[in-house]
User: Fold this.
Amino acid sequence: MLNSVRSEHVIHCVLDSLLCSEAKIALYILGSRRKTCIHSFIQSMLLHTQKVDDFTVPHIKCIREKKLKHHHALELLKVFCTEIAKLKLSKVERIFNPAMQDAIRMGMPEIVKQIVLTYPAAINYWNLDNKRFIFQEAILWRREHVFNLIYQMDVGAELMRLIPLKDRSSNGGMHLAAHLGREQQINLKASVPVAVLQMQRELQWFKEVEKLTPLAFREVRNADGMTPAEVFSNTHQDLIKEAEHWMKDTATSCTIVAALIAAMAFAAAITVPGGNNNENGHPLLSKQKAFVIFGISDALALFSSITSVLMFLLIMTSRYAEGDFLHTLPSRLVIGLITLFVSILSTMVASGAILYLVFGDNKAWILIPVVALASIPATLFGALQFPLLVEMIQSTYGRGIFGKKSDHALIG
Assistant:
């Protein structure tokens, strides 16, 4: 008890000294001649500045405190790992092994990295209960940040050896990547809220582990007599149904909106504003700049809305196989949402141009309320769908959740 109290006191002293380090350095540089007045002035300025920042932007204080706690925790972790590594081999393994297992289960790559840096032999630790190695645990618990550490290690051949090894239930790395239990669902929903992206993430995990598994081990059966592909199909049935239901509902709603925009754009195209010239049939307002803007915007709205309708129809008539959730369905949804947004924006521009052309009477101030009102639907749609669109683009066309091997080996 006394040691814990002393440790807590030391930690508080360290935190306090670090918090005040910038002020102390500034005071030391200023010298000692006008020490008293300058000290009080700087201290008061620092105090008032911190109070103003905390009052005006309260999130800055919270972020600063979290960053400091994280930094101090890492420093203490380095000290603890260094001291533990000096103990006997049996004691080191008794401390580091459960710590590694808990860190992987909770998704804390900093702890795993520091333990491996301090004690490289920890890379070969395995769970005594189920006979799984640490990176097999990372696969099972879907901890990509921990799994990516293997790319920073100079043990590529070691990875090929660890992944196919079987645990107590004869599950290899691909079986673990194919399995979706209740715990995996909780972790998956915490990181990816949409069912389609959850299914895509599961496929990405399975394909990545499949790349690292030798061909001879890809069709190995576990204790239940199932291959990795059979385990994947069996445990992902509910998620596939949920993703299919979400995709069809989204596609149906967006199809209705896109079809209405297409009908409006087509009606506006055949109904020329201002009428036509009886002699040559040309529009009377064709020389106006607003009319040219209307024509271009209306054509863009028509073509983009029809494209959006086609994409969403392809989604609704898809077979919804497992592999379709990796690229095919997300790509169609991305194209459909982008073209739908373009059609909405073009429709608003065309409507604004017609309002200015017919009722504006060449008055520039009319553009201000027209633009303001026309931007509301496009802004609302963008604000509601843009986060999902960005996340889906990054997940489908981005770098992915798995890193590449670094030039700087973590261990060697």
In short: The two ends are 40 Å apart (CA to CA). Residues 1-39 have pLDDT under 50 and may be disordered. Residues 242-274+282-397 form one domain.
